[in-house]
Amino acid sequence: MIKKYDRLEEAGKAEDLGNYKKAYRLFSELAREGNAHAMSALALMYHNGEYVRKQYKKSIYWDLESIKQGIDSKNLAITYRQLGDMQRYKYYLEKAMAQGDDSAAFNLAKLYSVSTKERLQVQALLLLVVTRDNTYQDEIEQAQQILKNLEKEEKLESFVDLFKSVKPIVKKIKYPSNYQKDSKKVVKQLAKVTEYLDRQKYKKARKLLEQLAADGCAKAMDILGGIYLYGIGVIVNITDAIKWYVRAIESGCFESNLNLAIAYRHTHDILRYKHYLELALAKGDDNAALLLAQLYSVSERESERVEALLEQVVASDKVNADAVYQAEMMLKNLLSPFNKIKQPLI
Which contiguous run of DSSP H or E holds residue 78? Predict the structure, then answer.
């Protein structure tokens, strides 16, 4: 009989070779037998959509089971970030840091940097990064540079320049002034795309979208961004998603600002997430107000800003009932100290 650690190693090798079917089978067996590392690996497969359909609920379930047995909570934090739940993202980053993952301190520093009122918290977290051993070298170097910049700046209005990515994926967007609406023919072709997607004919949908995009259809570019962001018939590729969203915005599809923000949320670039949410809000997308409120809610010092954003959502006729309900619940918790949840519920 093959020992558990041998089967775990076999599963890992299968995954490295791209044999996700075998890896999934072995990780599933071991996870059900109580192996914490297999649980974590299985959660990651559900998170990434490897062999199985991407299912965040199952990913969260297996991550929670692995955490009970001592695995750190960084992967669970990332899942909640991608879902847009910044409160739980913060909570599980804090847990990961308490479990010895010093890299979580760097991500917490970036998260708190959405508010200049959290300057001292950001500095304290960055100091942890540069003084601990369990941190990546590039994070230490970035943290050291940011701390130097913070010392030079007495009045800091924004952390954006301090937390710029080493290699930005896209350049600043220049909005067009001569945007033309899609013709009736293009509208019909976009309807055909929807039909293909509903019938899971992803290659046909993507081919038609690429043709439309080549002809300058901004909506087609936006849809292509979503295809690569969510892995609809393709492997998830955040860089390609971002490029398509940028092209859509450059071609006049201002609605893509929100989608571009969400694409950046899937990375560790929280400040670009915030930046494009603000652009979306400036273009009249009140859905961005809810996401900004959720982002700013990580800082108790931003309660007034959060309240104003949530009230904007509640008063808006441009958001759906679910967004209004979420805003109302957040307002209720914000205004009543008895409703504050210390530990986020699943």
Answer: helix 74-83
